[in-house]
């Protein structure tokens, strides 16, 4: 199978959706003429024209609200928020209007909100580094996915575009140009809500998502050299999330680390850990371990940023402790 | 569109029906027969009725809680209104939301939320869909003076202007955002002056004159339909009751209420159509009886509808 980098896989999903469905259009800041700050949407304006690839003013509230309105009027809008951190500027329509429409009056809202999220290990600082999946996981009516591979970036985005609900796709900007992998050329759909066992193992389970799934696989290689056989479950979808796959892995290994990049307190990993404690307590041979970002803003200086972020070495250290418990 | 005699009688009818439904709802709410509070458009009926009447059936409105008349013009039956107000299982919101948050895209009605200015960007998106599909349709949204102070208003009006979407922006300036008067809401001489800053046409209209509202909206809708982009229409009116039915509104100067009572849109319009020979005491008596019967029946029908079941709480978070 041919290989694509992560951002190319995102672009291919957008391209194919625009080709296949006249209801699909894109809107966002600097996405048309400029091709997006990460060049994900480069070339789409030239191919699909200004009615379907729309540059907007700097107005996150209006972008999210307009995507909602276009969705209920029969379109399939894909809104890009330039950095996921900026969704905060459009939080109100998202959590009060968009997410409640179907529950309150039965009208589907088939829209996608794409945004580059997460830290870069390149000093992006407090306002271009956040992982905010837990914000949205608290809002009934929103689906949230965080692809960790190029194939999933294409497949989950395609699923999101076809979903009759608002879906937030938190693309991992660390992986945009760092990760290359096999991606099916034609239609490729990864069902929302299905985790993937990215690596099978016997000794312990790591549950991770987004860039942390990538880092956890790196850690698993290091640990394998030490004779520790780790299973990595890439959650892929945050809402809804795949409890069955996680619990089956925990039942198999008896030891589990939950690794996430967001702030530790009340992060989504806390939900995963609590569910494991509720549902699989008898299977556990060691306390559930959480490895997450610190409860601080995400600092810019590389020394400070490295201290904030979990990485493969911290994962290795944590799993050694877990296995040795 | 120019108004025929029959149109004029209909405008009067819808304003009367709107007030009759709200008056009945006021009593129901005080008797504890509704879910949630009641927010009425008493005294500003000319705006939603005139605005909605100026639209085509395929157009879409995103109205607010004081726009009973807009819902009625779009074909919402009083039974549906009372069922909604009572939170009945088969009402628009199925008991999951309350108030005039009725939504039904098959009749071109976007269901509002309590964060009122959110209707602005959503209506912008509806209009954007029309523009992309090159359909000769317009979206219209209404909002109060208070909404114009929010970021959502600014972003939506600005983007609508930049993208030149077919959107009609109707501000119902009733002088009060809960207890906050205009002077604490904006410093411009007139709210409509903001249109200049967005580079769009602005119209200042007597919001208690249903034909003036109708004419301004008709003109703005025609412009939008022809590709001329959005128009901001400020309809000046007065909130004649409290913010909700539990707000005594003792912060409103009595002389202000007295002054505006003289300009009641329904009384004014009745005098006007009577002077034009389109209405008389006999028709009025007939209408009064008809409304009374229709409202009584509607309440009776709505009250007989089933309540939600506890398990309904789980239904509908996501579309299948």
Kindly describe this structure.
- The complex is a heterodimer of chains A (325) and B (320).
- With 325 residues, chain A is of the alpha/beta class.
- Chain A has helices at 6-20, 44-48, 60-72, 91-97, 101-105, 133-137, 150-162, 211-225, 243-253, 268-279, 302-308, 312-323, and strands at residues 3-5, 24-28, 53-55, 76-80, 112-117, 143-145, 167-172, 180-182, 196-199, 204-208, 230-234, 237-239, 256-263, 289-293.
- In chain A, the strands form 3 sheets. A 7-stranded mixed beta sheet of chain A has the order 3-2-4-5-7-6-12, sandwiched between helices. In chain A, strands 9-11-10-13-14 form a 5-stranded mixed beta sheet, sandwiched between helices. In chain A, strands 1-8 form a two-stranded antiparallel ribbon.
- In chain A, helix 1 (6-20) runs parallel beside helix 7, helix 8 (211-225) packs across helix 12 (312-323) and helix 9 (243-253) crosses helix 10.
- The N and C termini of chain A lie far apart (42 Å).
- In chain B, the strands form 2 sheets. In chain B, strands 1-2-3-7-6 form a 5-stranded parallel beta sheet, sandwiched between helices. A two-stranded antiparallel sheet of chain B has the order 4-5.
- Chain B starts with a helix and ends in a 17-residue tail after the last helix.
- The interface between A and B is large, with 45 and 46 residues.
């Amino acid at each position: 199978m041919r290989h694509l980098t992560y951002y190319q896989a995102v672009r291919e999903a957008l391209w194919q959706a625009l080709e296949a469905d006249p209801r699909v259009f894109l809107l966002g800041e600097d996405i048309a003429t400029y091709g997006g700050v990460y060049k994900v949407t480069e070339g789409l304006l030239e191919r699909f024209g200004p009615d379907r690839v729309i540059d907007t003013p700097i107005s996150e509230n209006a972008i999210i609200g307009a995507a909602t309105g276009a969705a209920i009027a029969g379109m399939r809008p894909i809104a890009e928020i330039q950095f996921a951190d900026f969704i905060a500027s459009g939080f109100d329509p998202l959590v009060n209007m968009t997410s409640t429409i179907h529950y309150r009056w039965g009208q589907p809202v088939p829209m996608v909100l794409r945004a580059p999220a997460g830290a870069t290990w390149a000093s992006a600082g407090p306002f271009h580094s956040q992982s905010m999946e837990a914000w949205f996981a608290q809002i009934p009516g929103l689906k949230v996915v965080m692809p960790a591979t190029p194939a999933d970036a294409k497949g989950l985005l395609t699923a999101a575009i076809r979903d009759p609900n608002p879906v937030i796709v938190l693309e991992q900007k660390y992986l945009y140009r760092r990760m290359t992998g096999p991606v099916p050329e034609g239609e490729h759909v990864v069902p929302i809500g299905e985790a993937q066992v990215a690596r099978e193992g016997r000794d312990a389970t790591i549950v991770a998502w987004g860039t942390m799934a990538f880092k956890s696989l790196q850690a698993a290689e290091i640990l394998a050299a030490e004779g520790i056989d780790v299973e990595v479950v890439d959650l892929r979808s945050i809402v809804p999330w795949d409890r069955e796959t996680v619990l089956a892995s925990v039942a198999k290994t008896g030891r589990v680390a939950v690794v996430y990049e967001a702030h530790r307190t009340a992060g989504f990993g806390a939900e995963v850990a609590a569910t494991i404690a509720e549902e699989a307590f008898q299977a556990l041979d060691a306390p559930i371990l959480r490895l997450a970002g610190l409860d601080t803003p995400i600092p810019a200086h590389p020394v400070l940023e490295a201290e904030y972020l979990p990485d493969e070495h911290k994962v290795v250290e944590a799993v050694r402790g877990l296995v040795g418990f | 569109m120019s108004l025929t005699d029959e149109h004029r009688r209909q405008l009067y009818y819808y304003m009367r029906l709107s007030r009759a439904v709200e008056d009945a709802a006021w009593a129901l709410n005080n008797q504890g027969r509704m879910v949630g509070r009641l927010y009425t458009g008493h005294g500003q009926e000319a705006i939603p009725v005139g605005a909605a009447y100026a639209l085509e059936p395929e157009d879409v409105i995103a109205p607010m809680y004081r726009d009973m008349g807009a819902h009625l013009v779009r074909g919402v039956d009083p039974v549906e209104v009372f069922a909604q107000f009572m939170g009945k299982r088969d009402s628009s919101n199925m008991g999951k939301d309350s108030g005039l948050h009725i939504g039904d895209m098959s009749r071109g009605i976007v269901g509002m939320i309590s964060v009122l200015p959110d209707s602005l960007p959503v209506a912008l998106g509806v209009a954007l869909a029309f523009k992309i599909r090159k359909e000769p349709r317009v979206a219209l949204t209404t909002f109060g003076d208070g909404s114009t102070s929010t970021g959502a208003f600014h972003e939506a009006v600005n983007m609508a202007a930049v993208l030149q979407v077919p959107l009609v922006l109707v501000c119902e300036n009733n002088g009060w955002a809960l207890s906050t008067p205009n002077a604490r809401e904006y410093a411009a001489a007139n709210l409509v002056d903001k249109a200049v800053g967005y580079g769009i046409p602005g119209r200042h209209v007597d919001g208690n004159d249903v034909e003036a509202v109708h004419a301004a909206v008709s003109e703005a809708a025609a412009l939008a339909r022809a590709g001329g982009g959005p128009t901001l229409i400020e309809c000046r009116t007065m909130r004649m009751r409290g913010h909700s039915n539990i707000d005594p509104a003792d912060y409103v100067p009595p002389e202000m209420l007295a002054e505006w009572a003289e300009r009641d849109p329904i009384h004014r319009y009745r005098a006007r159509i009577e002077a034009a020979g389109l209405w008389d005491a006999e028709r009025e008596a007939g209408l009064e009886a008809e409304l009374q019967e229709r409202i009584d029946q509607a309440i009776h029908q709505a009250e007989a509808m089933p309540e939600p079941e506890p398990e309904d709480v789980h239904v509908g978070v996501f579309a299948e």
